[in-house]
Structure to design on (227 residues):
């Protein structure tokens, strides 16, 4: 109420000063007119700041901030930078499925990432290469078996994707499986780093799809989230 009285008084004074200024242009009424105008403007600014809606809680605004950051930078920043924010987002939303998926992609499909015996490495992590024997000869095996699903976390995948030459890995468990099932003597798996780029792109696309599908109701609680 006090603020309204100040505004009304300042407005009346401004009108009065303007009238006297017109009647007596030679008098110096300008400073007082400006002062009254400043008082009116200042009171209006103060009212807007004081009565501005509180908006969402700190947690909700942080949630929206993370969603917008991932949407804006998810295509340009390395996944090793984007996924930690997605992990933070999953914790704020309380979505265990999203949190578990992010951990596996970030830390790797292993015990550290939370992988269990019932889990399998996703198909989108598979690359095509060639299995070689100890004499550097390419093994002739069915074409549908010339793939390998990487368990590595995204940071290690990013480092592999930067390589320029052909790369080789030796997965003893998988090698033993091929020996037992196909009776072939596998020594190493040879692949191009560009195959890893494709894996990273597929992980990125799935992350953005999950984040873009998050819907918040008026209470800022998640409605849906794809698994």
């Amino acid at each position: 109420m006090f603020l309204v009285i100040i505004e009304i008084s300042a407005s009346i004074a401004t009108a009065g000063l303007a009238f006297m200024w017109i009647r007596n242009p030679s008098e110096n009424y300008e400073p007082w007119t400006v002062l009254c105008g400043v008082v009116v403007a200042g009171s209006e600014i103060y009212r807007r700041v004081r009565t501005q809606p509180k908006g969402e809680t700190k947690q909700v605004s942080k949630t929206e901030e993370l969603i917008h950051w991932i949407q804006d930078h998810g295509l340009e920043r390395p996944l090793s930078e984007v996924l930690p924010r997605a992990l933070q987002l999953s914790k704020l939303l309380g979505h265990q499925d999203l949190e578990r998926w992010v951990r596996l992609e970030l830390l790797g499909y292993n015990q550290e990432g939370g992988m269990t015996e019932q889990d399998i490495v996703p198909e989108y992590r598979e690359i095509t290469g060639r299995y070689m024997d100890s004499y550097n000869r390419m093994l002739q095996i069915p074409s549908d078996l010339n793939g390998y699903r990487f368990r590595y976390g995204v940071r290690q995948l990013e480092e592999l994707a930067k390589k320029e030459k052909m790369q080789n890995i030796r997965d003893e468990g998988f090698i033993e499986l091929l020996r037992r099932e196909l009776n072939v003597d596998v020594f190493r798996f040879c692949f191009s780093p560009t195959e890893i780029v494709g894996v990273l792109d597929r992980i990125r696309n799935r992350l953005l799809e999950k984040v873009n599908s998050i819907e918040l109701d008026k209470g800022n609680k998640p409605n849906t989230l794809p698994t």
Observations:
- The radius of gyration is 32 Å.
